[in-house]
Amino acid sequence: MLDGIIGQELAKRYFQRAVEGGCLAHAYLFHGPAGVGKKSLARALAQALVCNTAENNSCGLCPACRMFLAGSHPDLRVLDGAEKSIGIAQVRELQQALVYRPYGARHLCLVQEAEGLTAEAANALLKTLEEPPGPVLFILTSARPERLPPTVVSRCLKIPFRPLTRDEITSGLETMGFKGDMVPLAARLAGGSLGRAAELAAGGDGLDWREKAANMAEEFLSGIGTAELFARARELGERAEMLVRTEYLLLWYRDLLLWRETGFEGLLINADRLEQVRVQARLADGPALARSIATIEDTRKKLLANVNVRLAAEGLCLRLAGLAEEDGYDRATGWSTV
Ligand SMILES: [Zn+2]
Predict the structure, then answer these.
(1) Host domain of residue 110
(2) In terms of domains, do 20 and 158 share one?
(3) Are 216 and 246 spatial neighbours (Cβ–Cβ below 8 Å)?
(4) What spacing in Å lies between the alpha carbon of 322 and ligand 1's midpoint?
(5) Series of mean pLDDT values for 10-residue runs along the chain (338 residues)
(6) Could you give the number of structural domains in the chain?
């Protein structure tokens, strides 16, 4: 039933049994990092439940499967908080639909990136989760479940999704038709996310950004002028871009520290850039690299908490270049960088 899903063996085994045993809960929350298969599994499960021909599986060919794949199956409702928040009107519309008898055995409601529910919408949804008006399966997916109201979370059976292993990502990329040197490299850099790996393998922003992160680190470690420093801060981009880009910076600094502390190539994510790692790791001591890593992590947390992006980027670059103290006082210019 869920053979096409890469990894997540525990979740797959659970649903295989639950479907065969007819003991599905009525609401699930799939939580875990982005790009590890939450939405794919939710859709595969939902399709297996609507398919008319294959028992506890989907055939992809019957009318129900075709409607499902075209997004027009009458029992399927999808709310998606990825692009913009899910408002109360959308939840009301969903609730209206649930009043009617489903076409098949049950209504299927996928609430993707459920942290995008507004407080009002989440509150309205809560009532339906508590007392569904008829046969319905809710699957909420979220990479940030801590942003969901605890009352909503507590109504769902929580299914954890784990970062994928490199082997799983490699096989996922190959299934998607990627070939060549890019596959192992993307699998290494993707931090357990097949979605990210696919972006990298397709030549997205990622590889450029690894390059840039490596060069930035070199400048920060060997000394950088103020004008260049502020230019680098601007290059980190807007909030969403900066979150991705600082991840590359983080991975790079982690490698510098790992190499410095262990000298073991097998631990490095950027093992193919060993020479550059080796040179840069000599430019700082262990505690300084550890502080830089903490600074990047701290900046990423602030970005998620909606701080001013420009200030966060400049503060980060100043600290990484050793031009600002951790308390936010900038030695070089006397500016406050908090
Ligand atoms: Zn079918």
Answers:
(1) 9-162
(2) yes
(3) no
(4) 60
(5) 88 94 95 94 95 87 94 94 93 94 94 96 96 94 94 96 93 88 82 86 75 94 91 91 88 93 87 93 92 94 89 94 65 46
(6) 2
